[in-house]
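User: Let's play a game. I give you a shape written as tokens, and you guess the letters that built it. Ready? Here's round one.
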């Protein structure tokens, strides 16, 4: 808690004494102070009247007008809201009916789309299966062909060893062709 300090000043005022010995300086100071105080009060009152009171009164009048107009507008808005609420109820029922129709339409469209996608996926699966079967058949044929060539090469190598004779590349190629033709398919 702040400590309060009392500061007092003493002013020395020359005292004039009249003939009877009574001081008149204090009376002069009091009269001057009263006059200065009244003058300050009147100046302050005039200034406050012009600078504060009139603007305050204008602001209060404006606020009162604004409040009245706001109340009138609120009353009109309340009436309009009731009219709008009825319109909204009708619009909501219309929108709800349209929404039900759209929902049914969407359900039918989704069923059609699902059926179409199912058909497309079955068709794609069938095509992929056929393509896989073709690839498997091609790989089988390549493997059979490779196996025939390998068998022919082994047969030639075995025949060379058995015959103990070396074949020329032309003879080897002709022999391979003959062996390939003789192998069962």
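Assistant: Ready! My guess for every position:
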């Amino acid at each position: 808690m702040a400590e309060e300090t009392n500061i007092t000043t003493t002013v020395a005022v020359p005292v004039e004494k009249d003939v009877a010995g009574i001081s008149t300086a204090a009376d002069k100071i009091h009269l001057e102070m009263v006059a200065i105080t009244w003058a300050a009060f009147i100046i302050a009152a005039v200034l406050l009247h012009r600078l504060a009171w009139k603007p305050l009164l204008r602001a209060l009048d404006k606020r009162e007008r604004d409040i009245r107009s706001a109340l009138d507008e609120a009353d009109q808005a309340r009436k309009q809201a009731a009219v709008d609420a009825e319109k909204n109820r009708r619009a909501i029922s219309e929108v709800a009916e349209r929404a039900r129709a759209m929902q049914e339409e969407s359900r039918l469209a989704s069923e059609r789309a699902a059926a179409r996608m199912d058909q497309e996926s079955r068709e794609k699966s069938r095509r992929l299966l056929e393509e896989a079967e073709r690839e498997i058949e091609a790989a089988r044929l390549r493997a059979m062909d490779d196996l025939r060539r390998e068998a022919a090469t082994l047969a030639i190598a075995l025949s060379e060893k058995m015959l103990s004779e070396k074949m020329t590349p032309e003879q080897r190629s002709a022999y391979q062709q003959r062996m390939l033709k003789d192998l069962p398919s």
